[in-house]
C-alpha cells in the first residue's frame, strides 16, 4: 500500500520533470552550458596574452631579456613600442595588459654590477590578471638577472625557496576547480527542481489534492526527494565522466567513495530544498529562498577561497554547509587517494544536515495542515 | 435614445485559423440602462468588453464608442469610459485610500475635483469607514466596490464591468446592483458581464453569447417569455426524485430537467404535450406549471440538455451500519483571538447531498477544510465513515473523495497519467488499478483524450477528469468545493447528472457553494455565517421560513439574505 502510493508519487514527479520537451531541455542544457563556461572561461590562469615592450636600452643584455619573454609560453606575442606615448596608447586600447619598460641604463648598470631597473606598466582595470602577469614577469626578470650574475660576476646566489605543489604538481587551475563542478552544478539543479516543485503544486492547487489523499507528510517528502536524487545523481555521473574522459583529469582515489559522498551530499541538498519549499507559499518566494540560500552555500564552501582564510566566526558556519565537505571529498578523491577515514569525517556532517533538514521539512508539512 | 456604443459586423480572431472569439456582432448599447453581456466562461464576454474599451482592435467590422472609432481614437475613448476588468488592478498592499489616490493620479483627477469625487465615491460605495484598510484585506464584495469606485473616478458616461459579481456573496451582490441602478438614474450606460444567468433578469437588455456567437439580443423578458407554458415543477417524488429525474430526461419531449430542492423542474420541447403523472410513470407525483426563468430559455436555445447515457462510475453501496457517514461534532477553529468556526455540528445521512452555504469569510471554507482533513480543528472532531480525520488521518482520507474549486490536476500530464497517479496515491495497484481506471474511462467517456495533456481539455472534460480522479477509489463520501461556479449551464447539468447517479448508489456528498443554483441541488443546506451555523434545513423549509407579505415567493437567495439579517438583528438585540 505505502509502496504503491510512493511509487505513484515518484513516477508522477519524474513525468512532470521530463514529459515536457521544454522542461527536459531546461534540465539538461543549463548545467552543460554552465559546465563548459566554468571549465574554460572562468580560469585563474593567464595564458596566450600579448605583452608590450618599450626598450630604451641599446645593450645586448636587454635583448637577451626580451628573448626570454618571447620564449615564455604564457605570452602569445611580444609587441615592441618605440615611445612612451605609443605604449600608453596600446594599454589604453587594451591591446596589451602590460608594457615592460626597460630603462636606457639597463645594460650599463647590469654590466657595472649595479641594480638595473625595469618598469612594468600594468592595466589596473584588469587588476586580477595584471597581478598574475606581473608575477610571471617578475619571475622571468629575476631569473634572468640571477643567471646573468652567475655567468658574469660569479656571485653566490642567496638561499632560494623552492615550492612544490603536491597532488597538483603543475598547480593547474583546471585540476582543482573542474572536479568541484561535479557537486556545484547538480546542487543548483536539485535546489531548483525540489524547491520549486512543492511551491508549484501549491500554486496549482494540486498540493491540497495530495494532502487529502491517504499520502502521509513523510511520504510526500520522500516522494519529492527521490526524483531529485535520481536527477541529481544522473547529472553527477555525467559530469564525472566528462571530467575524467573529456578533461583528462584522472580519478586518483576510489569511485565508490566519491559516489557515496555525492549521494549523501545530494540528500542533504534535497533536505535544504524541501525545507525552503515547506516555508514558502508560491514559486516566486521559492525562487527567492533558493537564491538567498545558494550564494552563501557557494561562497562559504571553500570552492573558490579556502575556508581557513575566512574569519574565525565564519568558519563554524562553513562547517554546516554540505558543499564545504563535498568539495574536500572531491578534491581529495581526484587529486590524491584520500583515505576512507578522512572521507568519513566529511560524510557524517552531511548526513546530519540531511537528517535535520528533511525532518524539519516533514514537520513543517505536517504543521501546515494543523 | 442615443447609442453609446454601436457595432457593425464586429468580429475578432486571435489567430488566423482559430475559432473567432467574437463573430459578426451588430448591436447598440444605450445610455441610461444596464446592458447584460451574458454567457458561460469562454463565450467571448471579456473580448467584447476589451473591444469596446479600445484595448483590442477588431479583426473585422467596426465599433464606435460615443461616435468615435476605436481603431483611431482609442486614447479619447479611454478618457471617457470606466472599465473594471475581471480582477481589477487593485494593489493589495496599498490601503483603500492609497489605491484611490493612485488611480486619481493616473487619471488626472486632482485638486478640489479629487476631494469632491473621493467624498462622493466613498459615500456611494460605503467604504468611508475602511479607507485605512489594505485592499488585500477586504472581502470580495468590498474589493469589487473599491474597483468600481476607481473605475468611476472620471464620472464616465459608459461603465464596463467585467464579471463584477464573481466571488461576491449574495448580500454584496445585491449592493452592487443597487449601486449600478443609481448610476443608471444619473444617465450612465452600464455594461455588466456575467456567467450567472439569473443576473440577466436584472438587465434592461441582454446580449447572450455562447462560443463567440450571439444567441439573443434584446429584452431578457422576451427571451424568457418564449418559454411560457413549457416549464413544470414535479413535486412529491420523495427519495425517488433523482431516479425520476434521470428517467424523465430520457424522454424526447423533455429538453431540460434539474433538481430544485425536493422538486424537479422540467422544460419540455416546443409543441410537446404537458407531462402527466402517467407520461412520466410516477403516479404519486403532482405536476404544476411554473414561471420560466432566463436559464430555461438559455438551455433551450442551446438545444437542451445533452442526452448521453453514461455507464455508472461507482458500484452500489450497501446501506452500511446506519451511522451517518459524515459527522461534524462541535467543530471549532480559532486563529489567534479570531474564531473562524464556532462549534459547528451537523450530520450527513448516507446518500444525501449536503450543502455548506455562506458568504465569503463566514467560516464556510474553514469548516470545509476541517472536514477534509486540511485544517486541524482547535476543538471538536470531524468524522468520515466513523473515522476521526485527525486521529486516523490516512485511513479516514482513504474514504473520502475531494474535488477542489478550480481545476487542480496536473495539467502537464496526460489524462491517463493523471488517472494512474491518483489511483496510485489512493493505494490501488495491479489489477485493481486497471479495473478502477478502466471503469472511469468508460463511465466518463475519456477514451478519446487519454494521451492528451489534461490542461488542454475542454472545460466539461476537465470536470469529468477531476471527478474521475476523486472517485476512483470508490469513496463512500465525496466532498466538492464550489464544483460548478462559472461553468456553463450544460456542463453544470451534466456534472450534477453524474453526482445524482452516484447519490443514487449510496454515495454521500458534501458541497460548498455561494452559488444559489448549486444550493438547489442539495437535499439539505447548512447556512454558515460569522463562524456559526445559523440554520440547517432543506432548501424549501428555509424558503418557507422567510415567506412574508413582501416576499410571497422567496428564492433561496432571498431566504439566505433574510436569515442573515435575522441573525444580525438577534445579535444586536442580545448585545
TrEMBL record, chain A:
One of its GO terms (molecular function) is ABC-type transporter activity. One of its GO terms (cellular component) is ATP-binding cassette (ABC) transporter complex. It comes from Rhodopseudomonas rhenobacensis. It is found in: Cell inner membrane; Cell membrane. Belongs to the ABC-2 integral membrane protein family. This is Transport permease protein. Keywords: Cell membrane, Membrane, Transmembrane, Transmembrane helix, Transport. The chain crosses the membrane at residues 177-199, 220-249, 255-276, 288-307, 347-365. Residues 130-368 form the ABC transmembrane type-2 domain. It comes from the Bacteria. It is a multi-pass membrane protein.
Automatic annotation (TrEMBL), chain B:
It holds the Pfam family ABC_tran. It comes from the Bacteria. Residues 5-236, 326-555 form the ABC transporter domain. InterPro entries: AAA+_ATPase, ABC_transporter-like_ATP-bd, ABC_transporter-like_CS, P-loop_NTPase. Involved in beta-(1-->2)glucan export. Transmembrane domains (TMD) form a pore in the inner membrane and the ATP-binding domain (NBD) is responsible for energy generation. Belongs to the ABC transporter superfamily. This is ABC-2 type transport system ATP-binding protein. It comes from Rhodopseudomonas rhenobacensis.
Amino acid at each position: 500500500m505505502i509502496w504503491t502510493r510512493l511509487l505513484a508519487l515518484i513516477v508522477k514527479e519524474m513525468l512532470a520533470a521530463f514529459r515536457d520537451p521544454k522542461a527536459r531541455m531546461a534540465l539538461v542544457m543549463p548545467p552543460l552550458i554552465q559546465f563548459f563556461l566554468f571549465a574554460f572561461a572562468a580560469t585563474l590562469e593567464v595564458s596566450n596574452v600579448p605583452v608590450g615592450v618599450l626598450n630604451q636600452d641599446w645593450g645586448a643584455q636587454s635583448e637577451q631579456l626580451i628573448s626570454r619573454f618571447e620564449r615564455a609560453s604564457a605570452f602569445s606575442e611580444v609587441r615592441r613600442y618605440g615611445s612612451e606615448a605609443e605604449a600608453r596608447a596600446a594599454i589604453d586600447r587594451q591591446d596589451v595588459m602590460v608594457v615592460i619598460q626597460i630603462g636606457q641604463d639597463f645594460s650599463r648598470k647590469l654590466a657595472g654590477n649595479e641594480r638595473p631597473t625595469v618598469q612594468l606598466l600594468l592595466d589596473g582595470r584588469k587588476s586580477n590578471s595584471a597581478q598574475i602577469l606581473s608575477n610571471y614577469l617578475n619571475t622571468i626578470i629575476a631569473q634572468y638577472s640571477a643567471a646573468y650574475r652567475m655567468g658574469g660576476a660569479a656571485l653566490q646566489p642567496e638561499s632560494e625557496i623552492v615550492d612544490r605543489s603536491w597532488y597538483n604538481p603543475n598547480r593547474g587551475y583546471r585540476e582543482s576547480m573542474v572536479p568541484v563542478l561535479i557537486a556545484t552544478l547538480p546542487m543548483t539543479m536539485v535546489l531548483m527542481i525540489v524547491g520549486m516543485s512543492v511551491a508549484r503544486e501549491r500554486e496549482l492547487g494540486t498540493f491540497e489534492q495530495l494532502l487529502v489523499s491517504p499520502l502521509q507528510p513523510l511520504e510526500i517528502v520522500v516522494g519529492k526527494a527521490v526524483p531529485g536524487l535520481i536527477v541529481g545523481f544522473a547529472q553527477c555521473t555525467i559530469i564525472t565522466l566528462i571530467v575524467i574522459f573529456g578533461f583528462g583529469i584522472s580519478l586518483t582515489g576510489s569511485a565508490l567513495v566519491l559516489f557515496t559522498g555525492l549521494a549523501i551530499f545530494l540528500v542533504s541538498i534535497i533536505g535544504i530544498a524541501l525545507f525552503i519549499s515547506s516555508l514558502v507559499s508560491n514559486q516566486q518566494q521559492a525562487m527567492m529562498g533558493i537564491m538567498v540560500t545558494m550564494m552563501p552555500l557557494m561562497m562559504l564552501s571553500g570552492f573558490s577561497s579556502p575556508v581557513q582564510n575566512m574569519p574565525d566566526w565564519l568558519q563554524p558556519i562553513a562547517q554546516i554547509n554540505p558543499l564545504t565537505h563535498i568539495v574536500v571529498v572531491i578534491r581529495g578523491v581526484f587529486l590524491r587517494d584520500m583515505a576512507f577515514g578522512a572521507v568519513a569525517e566529511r560524510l557524517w556532517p552531511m548526513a546530519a544536515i540531511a537528517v535535520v533538514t528533511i525532518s524539519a521539512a516533514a514537520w513543517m508539512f505536517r504543521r501546515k495542515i494543523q | 435614445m442615443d447609442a453609446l456604443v454601436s457595432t457593425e459586423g464586429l468580429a475578432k480572431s486571435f489567430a488566423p485559423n482559430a475559432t473567432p472569439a467574437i463573430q459578426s456582432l451588430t448591436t447598440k448599447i444605450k445610455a441610461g440602462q444596464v446592458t447584460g453581456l451574458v454567457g458561460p466562461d469562454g463565450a467571448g464576454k471579456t473580448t467584447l468588453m476589451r473591444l469596446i474599451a479600445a484595448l483590442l482592435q477588431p479583426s473585422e467590422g467596426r465599433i464606435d464608442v460615443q461616435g468615435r472609432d476605436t481603431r483611431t481614437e482609442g486614447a479619447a475613448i479611454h478618457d471617457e469610459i470606466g472599465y473594471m476588468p475581471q480582477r481589477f488592478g487593485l494593489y493589495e498592499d496599498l490601503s483603500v485610500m492609497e489605491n484611490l489616490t493612485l488611480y486619481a493620479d493616473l487619471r488626472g483627477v486632482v485638486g478640489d475635483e479629487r476631494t469632491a469625487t473621493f467624498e462622493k465615491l466613498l459615500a456611494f460605495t460605503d467604504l468611508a469607514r475602511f479607507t485605512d484598510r489594505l485592499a488585500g484585506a477586504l472581502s470580495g464584495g468590498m474589493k469589487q466596490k473599491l474597483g468600481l469606485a476607481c473605475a468611476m473616478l472620471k464620472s464616465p458616461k459608459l461603465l464596463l464591468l467585467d464579471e463584477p459579481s464573481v466571488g461576491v456573496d449574495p448580500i454584496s451582490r445585491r449592493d452592487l446592483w443597487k449601486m449600478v441602478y443609481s448610476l443608471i438614474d444619473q444617465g450612465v450606460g452600464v455594461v455588466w458581464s456575467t456567467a450567472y444567468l439569473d443576473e440577466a433578469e436584472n438587465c434592461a437588455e441582454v446580449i447572450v453569447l455562447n462560443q463567440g456567437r450571439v444567441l439573443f439580443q434584446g429584452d431578457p423578458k422576451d427571451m424568457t417569455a418564449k418559454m411560457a407554458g413549457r416549464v413544470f415543477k414535479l413535486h412529491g417524488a420523495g427519495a425517488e426524485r433523482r431516479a425520476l429525474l434521470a428517467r424523465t430526461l430520457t424522454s424526447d419531449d423533455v429538453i431540460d430537467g434539474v433538481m430544485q430542492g425536493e422538486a424537479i423542474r422540467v422544460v419540455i420541447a416546443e409543441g410537446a404535450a404537458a407531462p402527466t403523472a402517467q407520461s412520466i410513470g410516477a403516479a404519486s407525483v403532482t405536476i404544476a406549471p411554473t414561471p420560466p426563468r432566463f436559464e430555461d430559455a438559455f438551455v433551450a436555445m442551446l438545444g437542451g440538455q445533452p442526452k448521453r447515457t453514461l455507464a455508472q462510475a461507482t458500484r452500489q453501496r450497501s446501506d452500511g451500519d446506519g451511522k451517518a457517514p459524515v459527522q461534524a461534532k462541535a467543530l471549532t477553529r480559532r486563529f489567534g483571538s479570531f474564531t473562524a468556526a464556532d462549534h459547528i455540528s451537523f450530520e450527513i445521512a448516507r446518500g444525501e447531498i449536503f450543502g455548506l452555504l455562506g458568504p465569503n469569510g463566514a467560516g464556510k471554507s474553514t469548516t470545509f477544510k476541517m472536514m477534509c482533513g486540511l485544517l486541524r480543528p482547535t476543538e471538536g472532531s470531524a468524522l468520515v465513515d466513523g473515522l476521526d480525520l485527525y486521529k486516523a488521518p490516512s485511513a479516514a482520507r482513504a474514504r473520502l473523495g475531494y474535488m477542489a474549486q478550480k481545476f487542480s490536476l496536473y495539467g502537464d500530464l496526460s489524462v491517463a497519467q493523471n488517472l494512474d497517479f491518483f489511483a496510485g496515491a489512493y493505494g490501488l495497484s495491479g489489477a485493481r488499478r486497471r479495473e478502477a481506471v478502466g471503469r472511469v474511462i468508460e463511465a466518463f467517456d475519456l477514451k478519446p483524450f487519454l494521451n492528451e495533456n489534461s490542461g488542454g481539455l475542454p472545460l466539461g472534460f476537465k470536470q469529468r477528469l477531476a471527478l474521475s480522479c476523486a472517485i476512483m477509489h470508490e469513496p463512500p463520501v465525496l466532498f466538492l468545493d464550489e464544483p460548478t461556479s462559472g461553468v456553463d449551464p450544460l456542463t453544470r447539468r451534466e456534472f450534477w447528472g453524474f453526482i445524482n447517479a452516484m447519490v443514487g448508489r449510496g454515495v454521500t456528498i458534501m458541497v460548498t457553494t455561494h452559488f444559489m443554483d448549486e444550493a438547489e441541488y442539495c437535499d439539505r443546506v447548512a447556512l454558515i455565517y460569522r463562524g456559526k451555523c445559523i440554520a440547517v434545513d432543506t432548501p424549501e423549509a428555509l424558503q418557507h421560513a422567510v415567506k412574508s407579505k413582501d416576499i410571497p415567493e422567496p428564492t433561496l437567495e432571498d431566504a439566505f439574505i433574510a436569515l442573515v439579517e435575522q441573525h444580525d438583528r438577534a445579535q444586536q438585540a442580545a448585545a
